[in-house]
C-alpha cells in the first residue's frame, strides 16, 4: 500500500499551535484546583490571569500584527531599502483582466507591427490571462477582424489565439456594456 503525507503549510502549523494553547488553557482552567502540582502556582496566577496571558494578549497582538501586515507598512519599508518583496497591490495587468467585461474587444498590437483582434469571452475555456508577473501571456477565446466600418467581426468557425507576453507591445480595450 502506498501513500503520501499531505503537505503541511504555514497556516496548518499556526492553527495547530493556536489550538494547542487554547486546549492547554481550557484544561488548566478546569483542573487548576484539582492538580496538586498547580496548587503552588494558583496563588501567583489565577485562572483569569492565565486567560489574559494565553488568550487575550496574544489575540490583541495578533490583531495588531494583522493590521500591520494588511497595511503593507513593513513591506513598504523593506522595499524602500532595496529588499524585493511582492506588493499586495494588483498590477495593471491583473486589474485589467480581473475587471474586464466578457464581450469586450481587445486590439493587441504586436512588436512586429501586426495586430490581433479578439473578443474577451471570460474563463472556463474562454479567454485567459496569466497572473504570473514574469509571464503575462494572453489567450483570446475568439479572434476576428475589423471590417471597413471599424466593426469587429469574429472569424468563422470560431477560433482562439495564444499570444506570448514577449510579443505584446500594446493592448487596446473596447469595453462591452455591462448588463
What are its keywords?
179 residues, 5 helices, SH3 type barrels, five-stranded antiparallel sheet
Provide the spatial order of strands within the biggest beta sheet.
Answer: 6-5-2-1-8
Instruction: Give the low-pLDDT segments.
Output: none
One letter per element, helices H and strands E, the order comes to HHHHHEEEEEEEE
CATH fold name of the largest domain: SH3 type barrels
Would you count the extended β strands for me?
8
Mean pLDDT: 78
Approximate strand percentage: 15-25%
Can you tell me the number of structural domains? 2
CATH architecture of the largest domain: Roll
Report the total helices. 5
Distance between the terminal alpha carbons, to the nearest Å? Answer: 54 Å
Cα-atom Rg, whole angstroms? 28 Å
DSSP helix fraction: 25-40%
Sheet with the most strands, sense and barrel status: 5 strands, antiparallel
If you had to describe this structure to a student in words, what would you say it looks like?
The protein starts with 9 loop residues before the first helix and ends in a 5-residue tail after the last strand. Helix 1 (10-31) runs antiparallel to helix 3. It has a five-stranded antiparallel β-sheet, with no helix packed on it. Strands 3-4-7 form a three-stranded antiparallel β-sheet, with no helix packed on it. The chain contains five helices and eight strands, in the order H-H-H-H-H-E-E-E-E-E-E-E-E. The model has no long low-confidence stretch (mean pLDDT 78). Strand 3 (128-129) and strand 4 (138-140) form a beta hairpin. By secondary structure, it is α+β, with helices and mostly antiparallel strands. The protein folds into two domains: 10-80, no CATH class; 92-174, Roll (SH3 type barrels).
Amino acid at each position: 500500500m502506498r501513500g503520501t503525507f499531505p503537505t503541511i503549510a504555514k497556516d496548518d502549523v499556526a492553527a495547530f499551535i493556536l489550538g494547542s494553547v487554547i486546549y492547554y488553557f481550557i484544561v488548566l482552567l478546569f483542573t487548576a484546583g484539582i492538580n496538586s502540582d498547580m496548587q503552588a502556582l494558583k496563588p501567583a496566577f489565577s485562572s483569569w490571569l492565565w486567560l489574559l496571558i494565553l488568550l487575550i494578549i496574544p489575540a490583541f497582538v495578533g490583531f495588531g500584527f494583522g493590521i500591520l501586515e494588511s497595511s503593507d507598512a513593513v513591506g513598504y519599508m523593506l522595499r524602500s531599502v532595496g529588499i524585493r518583496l511582492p506588493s499586495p497591490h494588483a498590477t495593471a495587468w491583473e486589474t485589467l483582466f480581473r475587471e474586464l467585461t466578457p464581450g469586450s474587444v481587445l486590439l493587441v498590437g504586436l512588436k512586429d507591427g501586426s495586430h490581433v483582434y479578439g473578443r474577451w469571452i471570460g474563463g472556463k475555456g474562454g479567454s485567459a490571462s496569466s497572473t504570473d508577473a514574469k509571464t503575462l501571456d494572453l489567450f483570446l477565446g475568439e479572434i476576428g477582424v475589423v471590417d471597413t466600418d471599424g466593426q469587429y467581426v469574429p472569424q468563422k468557425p470560431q477560433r482562439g489565439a495564444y499570444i506570448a507576453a514577449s510579443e505584446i507591445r500594446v493592448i487596446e480595450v473596447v469595453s462591452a456594456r455591462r448588463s
